Known about the structure:
The protein is α/β, with parallel strands linked by helices. It is 33% helix and 21% strand. The chain has a nine-stranded mixed β-sheet with strand order 14-13-12-11-7-10-9-8-15. Strand 11 and strand 12 form a beta hairpin. The longest helix is centred in the C-terminal third of the chain and has 20 residues. It starts with 8 loop residues before the first strand and ends in a 6-residue tail after the last strand.
Amino acid sequence: MTSENLDPVRLGVAGLGRGFMLSLPSLRVDPHVRLVACAAPRAASRAAFVDEFGGNAHDSVEALAADPTVEAVYVATPHQMHRAHVEALAAGGKALLVEKPLAITMEDGAAMVAAASRHGVPLITGPSHSFDPPVLAARDLIAAGEIGPPQMALAFNYTDFLYRPRRPEELDTAQGGGVLFSQAIHQIDVIRLLMGRPATHVTARTGAWDTDRLTEGAYTALIDFEGGGTASLTYSGYAHFDSDQWMGDISELGHPKPPDAHTATRARIAGLSPDAEAALKSGRTYGAVAVPDPAPISEHFGPVIVSGPKGDLRLTPEGVEITHATGRRFTSTPPDPAPRSPVFRALYDTLRQDRPPPQSGAWGLASLEVVHAILTSARTRQTVALTRQGA
């Protein structure tokens, strides 16, 4: 079906902050969706939305839930608001695309899945980097038997996450702050997808090393999978070493990256009060700053290598390197003009083709369980068994 023949999903968006900004380059050009409404507390953001897209601008999610022009909603509000917003939107009959993580607590996540089921609406979790073209290409290569059953995976990422401008709650683990809820979920989604079977146990350690930002800034985790197979996940958001230099100096969002980026990140918040830092964060929302141009290269989430009895796969921003005993070759993944098209296409396929969503609410709940297992294992120094991995 060509883009001219598509019947795009009439999409509302709840929240016009940073999550929406990161998806906006795709939303502007993706033929599978059409923005028709928003809900946001800032009048300036609502006005900017209407100026660009037309449609309806609401000051509450409840009003968005009652908007008859909307058939699905992209929930891009802060983590701790997801449950209340999903329950309101599901009751309004809206299909749901919920930003990662699904929720902060397992209780809230389970309630969201139940609300979607009760009201008969689909719930997709994303965007996460498991929708990146190189990840999807690697999944297809594994399914085709390229390396045999995956037995070992390595994912690591060293970023400046903890020193980007933050609101106070983003530095409070209990409110979903730190690197676990916002960043680990990416790695977990990617590795669960590539390993292709349920995880069973987690052994992990975390680091909270900055007394001025006392939330988890780093973690390392060992995840076991059914039928054998283990994945090692490591992440640091402390803005020292930059693992993007091992990804061709391409940033997470697919843009060329200067070598001093981490130093500049720390400098931007140096000496700021919590209120001033929060104001700086608010200044990055829609209607306050220009939206970056579409990325020339696919998004990524750091180096990932998957090993099986027949070979190894290494993911890069440009594609997947396949190494066998007899040699090496490369499968390229050209960037999509809409970098996050796979997740919006999944929403389209769910509503227009009646295909079950690839990353449902149950999937998001399973990934959230791994996040909590990392925190629990680090606290107790014990291996944690997983019980919600059926997705």
